[in-house]
Amino acid sequence: MHFYIASAGTLLSVLAHAQQHGEDAEGTKMGPVAFLWPSDRNWTAAADNIGPCGSPGGVMRRTTFPLSQGSVALSIADEAWNIAFRVAYANNPLQQAQFSDQVVSNISEIAPGHQCYKLDQFEDVSAGTNATIQLEYWSEYEGENKGNNQSFFACADITFVEAKDFTIQVPCFNVTSDDFNAPTPSTSSTLPSATDASQASQTAAASSLSASSSSSSLSAGAKAGIAVGSIVGGVAITALVAFIVWRRGKATGLANRNSYELRAKNLSTTPEGASATSCRDNA
């Protein structure tokens, strides 16, 4: 029960964070690429090309991060190249040289949408250690650097915890804006069956996208924001359904146990006069 409540709260937080990063946020709240999870440092257009963290501020908040089986999720508003993830094991790293541990091999190219990457190469690190994950990439931003690619930076501050103590539901999935297109209306009157809550949520979001596109086209960032909203919403619905099934199963189990105990009690009670009858028969 506590798991479902915590998961639902985490999913709502992630959904709000995704909408902030995804819907036409490039140039106002983020650069071409930003951390969806863990939370990144405050962003400004004037600082996002300045290493090592692309932010005028220091550590504002920390996110717990597992020592093993960890992941980072990106919100991608525009195409980017030569993406690299590095880690600095310090309370507030200020120099590029401190980010010496590259935890993901260089990624050649990413498209608008959302992507998830495993970070599971930490050595000689213990729970309670503070660190900062750096994202560096190349991209083009209209009106800057004469339209040429330039380096961008972003940082997320974390505290390592044991995997068994990590309870956050990370929004780890891969989807591009091209993958999330409105379906072509069908002339058939047959209604599709909903196989699960997640598919139903994605279908609803796609229908909304189709209606919006009739009047104006959506940007890649907006499509990406709708995609993450539908997927996270679907996961939240699935978690709620699982919780209801668990509660019903528990109630049914208690009813069956009470019924069993009542039958057992009735069988173990000797009817009045049964012993006397048995003795006369033996005589």
Automatic annotation (TrEMBL):
The chain crosses the membrane at residues 224-246. One of its GO terms (cellular component) is side of membrane. Keywords: Cell membrane, Glycoprotein, GPI-anchor, Lipoprotein, Membrane, Signal, Transmembrane, Transmembrane helix. It is a lipid-anchor; GPI-anchor. Pfam families: BIM1-like_dom. Residues 30-176 form the Copper acquisition factor BIM1-like domain. It comes from the Eukaryota. This is Copper acquisition factor BIM1-like domain-containing protein. It comes from Lophiotrema nucula.
